[in-house]
Every structure is written in structure tokens, then in C-alpha cells.
Backbone:
């Protein structure tokens, strides 16, 4: 937390990517971490290409905080192949120069930006945190985040990095966005982009089975981003099906729907946290590890075709006990606090320097003590008069059993700590 009028506790530049081909998962999880960083007092800036800009804006990132890169290495690229090293280095150098000062951290989330980008970013003086879903390439970062891997996966790939792995570090989208699921039993959620047009294929498969389904087709809600190339086709198809509707974009709301058929990106983690069981049809290879982790946790079932997904959905919707167990397993595995854990670790690694307080700190300590946020959690919520504070500080500095310390970062004071020694 940064008190009023105080400098930012942490300076972070985020480099992410999103597009109709890539989807919104990278943007969703970096925004979630950025929001948590801001809650603990960080100043967050953004660097991105033009395709990513609308995805950040719709997630509440202020336009004045976003720098459009002149030579973005991600522009026009998608898939898992990294951009050329020279393009990555230029991208990182420009991103590091955003703002008036070098950031403490650069947080990056793009398959096109790998070790070459990380080396150039670290050369600027910043620490680097990176998301990774691939575990197939070297990483030259200080922090690596992968909810679908174990720390052992990075012993050789990222020897200098602290690895934040497992579902404790699962990042869900910003819960302040509108819920995706309208009233219905079944949610179709193959990601914002749905590059394989699996939503349309699943709706058509359910429609083809209509005559053989006891009670008819389940009331189905489809979620596809308005930026997806298949958006209009899916919307038109849903309008023609009495049992189908089209959802607004955003996270899954707790308790609705009963079940989802979807991909294994950020949306799967959102569904687990919301207690919505999933039938997972892996849309792209980099989602397999997360799908397997969700299945191992008991929150999902993996299938290999649209036909198998529809068969499994019909069976599960008639098995309330299994649905309840899967919902409980999902909520137990993903608690929605992964972004906060990542933000706290970035702040911890940055560190502070401690020094002994002196009388020259009197005005600063007095202002901190009387800040409304501090008084709200103090034993006494009354303001301390200046004369009373000065007498207390003078006595404290002369007391050999009391140690009043000031924490500094970048040579600026960011907090205070007091130790009172008693007994042996």
C-alpha cells in the first residue's frame, strides 16, 4: 500500500500480446497481476502492439498508461515460434524506456518474446518476470510463472529464475468484469479467439442429436469474443436455436452454468475457481499441461473430439453427484489469489534497505502515523499531536531496547518498522 503523496513502492512495465488469432489469455492474466501490483502500491506502465490495445482498454487499462511500440516484435505474429533475436532485443529496449525511469520489473507474456527479449530487458537494469506455458525453451528471467508445471521443469531451462508453479499461482481474469454465463445448463467457452471454430462445431453437434436427447438439448450459452473471426457465425447460429443463447464476455459467474465444454486456457482456471466443472477439448498444444493438471485435480475431463465432448456433457448433466464433486475440486484447487501471490513475490524479490531512524525522520514518521489508512488499523485512531510524537521519538532513539527503522527503496523511504526487546 502506498500512502497519499508518497512515491510508488514499485515500478513495473508490462509487455503482453493479444489478437483475434492469439486470443485474450495473455492480456487477461497480465491485467490481473497488474491490478494486484497496483493494490500494493506499484506504478504500472504498459507496452504493446496495436492489436493488443483494445484488449487492454476493455479490461480497464487507462490509455495514458499504454505505450504503442514502434517496432513491436509481436506485430503480425502468432503461434509459438519466437520472433528473431534482433526484433526481440529492439522490442525489449523500447519497452524498457517507457516512462521517466527504468522499471524495477518488466513482466512479459508472449510466446514470440523469449530469452533474447529477456536478456535485453535485464540489460536495462530491470528484473524480468515471464509467464510460460511451453517448458520447451531456455528462459533468462528472474521469475517464471507456470500454473501447469512443477519447479523441477525449470531447473535446467531457467537456472537463475525463481519458479512460481502449480495451481497456487493460477491466474484468473479480473473478476470485476461482467459474468459470461447467462441462465443455462451448459457453457461453451473455447477462448476469446476460438481459432478452430469449436463453438460452432459443438452447437451443430448438439443440434444434430436433438431428437435423441432425453428432454431435448441442454440450455446452452456460447461465449466467443466479438473480435473472434467466428463471432458472427456463432451468433447467427445461436439465434436460430431455441435452446441456445450468446453470452457477454467475461469470467464465469459462480453457480451458473452447471457444466462447461471448453478449452484449457485462462478460462478453464476461471471455471475451476467459480466451481463450474469442465469437459476440456484441447484447442492448441500448449494447453495440454494445464488440461492434465485440471483433470488430475478432479475438476475436468479431457476429451479428443467434439462428438466425445457432447456425449460426456449429456452424461454429466444427468449425474448431479459427479458434477458436485468436480465443482468442489475446482474451487479447492484454484482460489483466485494467484495474481496476488505473484505480485507479492515480485515485491519481495525487489527488497528494501533498512536503516536506523533519526530525528530528521520526525516529520516523515509523524505524517505516516497520522495518515487515515494507518490510523484505521492502529490501537488508537486519534491523530497524534506533533509535540507528543517528538517526545516519543526522542525517547525511543535513546532507549537501547527499542529499535526504530526506516525502510528505503531507490533511496526513498517507503515504510517503518519498530522492534521492542524484552526479557532475555
Residues:
Amino acid at each position: 500500500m502506498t500512502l497519499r503523496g508518497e512515491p510508488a513502492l514499485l515500478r513495473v512495465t508490462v509487455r503482453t500480446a493479444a489478437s483475434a488469432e492469439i486470443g485474450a489469455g495473455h492480456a487477461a492474466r497480465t491485467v490481473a497481476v497488474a491490478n494486484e501490483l497496483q493494490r500494493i502500491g506499484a506504478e504500472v506502465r504498459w507496452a504493446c502492439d496495436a492489436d493488443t490495445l483494445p484488449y487492454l482498454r476493455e479490461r480497464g487499462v487507462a490509455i495514458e498508461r499504454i505505450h504503442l511500440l514502434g517496432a513491436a516484435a509481436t506485430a503480425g505474429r502468432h503461434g509459438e515460434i519466437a520472433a528473431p533475436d534482433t526484433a526481440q532485443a529492439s522490442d525489449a529496449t523500447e519497452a524498457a524506456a517507457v516512462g521517466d525511469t527504468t522499471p524495477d520489473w518488466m513482466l512479459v507474456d508472449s510466446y514470440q518474446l523469449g530469452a533474447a527479449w529477456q536478456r535485453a530487458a535485464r540489460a536495462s537494469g530491470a528484473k524480468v518476470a515471464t509467464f510460460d506455458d511451453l517448458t520447451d525453451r531456455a528462459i533468462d528471467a528472474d521469475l517464471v510463472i507456470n500454473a501447469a508445471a512443477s519447479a523441477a521443469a525449470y531447473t535446467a531451462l531457467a537456472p537463475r529464475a525463481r519458479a512460481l508453479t502449480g495451481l497456487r499461482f493460477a491466474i484468473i481474469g479480473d473478476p470485476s468484469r461482467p459474468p459470461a454465463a447467462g441462465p443455462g445448463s451448459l457453457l461453451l467457452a473455447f477462448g476469446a479467439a476460438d481459432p478452430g471454430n469449436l463453438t460452432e462445431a459443438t452447437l451443430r453437434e448438439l443440434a444434430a442429436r436433438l431428437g435423441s436427447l432425453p428432454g431435448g438439448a441442454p440450455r446452452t450459452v456460447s461465449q466467443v469474443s466479438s473480435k473472434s473471426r467466428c463471432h458472427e457465425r456463432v451468433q447467427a447460429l445461436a439465434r436460430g436455436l431455441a435452446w441456445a443463447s450468446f453470452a457477454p464476455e467475461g469470467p464465469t459467474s459462480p453457480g451458473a452454468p452447471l457444466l462447461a465444454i471448453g478449452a484449457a486456457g485462462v478460462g478453464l482456471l476461471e471455471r475451476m475457481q467459480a466451481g463450474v466443472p469442465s469437459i476440456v477439448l484441447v484447442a492448441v498444444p500448449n494447453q495440454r499441461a494445464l488440461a492434465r493438471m485440471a483433470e488430475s485435480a478432479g475438476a475436468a475431463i479431457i476429451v479428443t473430439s467434439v462428438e466425445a465432448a457432447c456425449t460426456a456433457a449429456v452424461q454429466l448433466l444427468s449425474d448431479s453427484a459427479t458434477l458436485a464433486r468436480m465443482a468442489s475440486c475446482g474451487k479447492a484447487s484454484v482460489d483466485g489469489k494467484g495474481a496476488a501471490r505473484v505480485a507479492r513475490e515480485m515485491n519481495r524479490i525487489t527488497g528494501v534497505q533498512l536503516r536506523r531512524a533519526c530525528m530528521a525522520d520526525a516529520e516523515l514518521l509523524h505524517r505516516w502515523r497520522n495518515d487515515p489508512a494507518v490510523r484505521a488499523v492502529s490501537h488508537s485512531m486519534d491523530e497524534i499531536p506533533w509535540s507528543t510524537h517528538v517526545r516519543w521519538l526522542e525517547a525511543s532513539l535513546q532507549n537501547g531496547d527499542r529499535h526504530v527503522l526506516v525502510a528505503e527503496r531507490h533511496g526513498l523511504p517507503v515504510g517503518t518498522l519498530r522492534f521492542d526487546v524484552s526479557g532475555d
Remarks:
- The CA atoms of residues 31 and 340 lie 12 Å apart.
